[in-house]
Input
Amino acid sequence: MLATPADNPYQEPRSGRLTAWGNALLAGACSPDDAATAVQGDDDAHRVTGLPGEPPDSLHGLTWALGKLRVLGAKGLRLALPVAGHPLGLTGPPAFNALAMGAQEAVLAVGVPYGLVPEVEVYGPEGDQGVRVLWQCLPVNDALPADVPSLDEAERELADGLRQATVMLTRLDVAGAGPQTLRALEGFRRRGHQKLLAPGYPQRAVRVLESARQVSALLGIAAGGHGAAVSASEMTARREILAPLDRTARRAQVAAYNAIVDERG
Output
């Protein structure tokens, strides 16, 4: 069974972890083993295939793959979080974009024209499942990524969007949805955010990412049907309100993960 970020709106995108810790490694802020361990997280295994100069069916660990990209000239990594109709962070070509759209995430190298897309496999019986991740490396266009804001822009957009959405959602009784919504939000807050990003990132990027992920959690709760807005017309109105804020939250996440590269640039 394959999984995408949409299956769990509270989970950090694996491409985000690879971007953050890959950037820390390339900047000399952590060891290769620490970077690989952080990227893998609770997954059983991560492998990379399709690296330049390697046989098409070859599989390599994260440590080897990140070292290979550095030898090829990679100076950093950038995150993409595309969805249908919004190719956020992508540069093309169509083959890479289609794969990234399907996964709803990708990593693009800075300095060499290659990108990585994760294929996440969940296996095993219910209650005892494991996760394997296969990163496919493909050529990408050397171009500016689509629709990626600066950290300043992202922070302003996030604050403005949250204020506007709060007013509109309150009219639909989402803000007063009751104990189920409050428990869901409190569960997200208890997860803790001390491990956001990686060594070398500016504190402002951590703050923007934390805000963006809290907004994404709220969106997941609101979209889950909690609250008094239960009719078809009210649910349609709710989706129309949430869609722009979802776009804003994803843009803010991308800006935060890419901050270390953008500031260096």
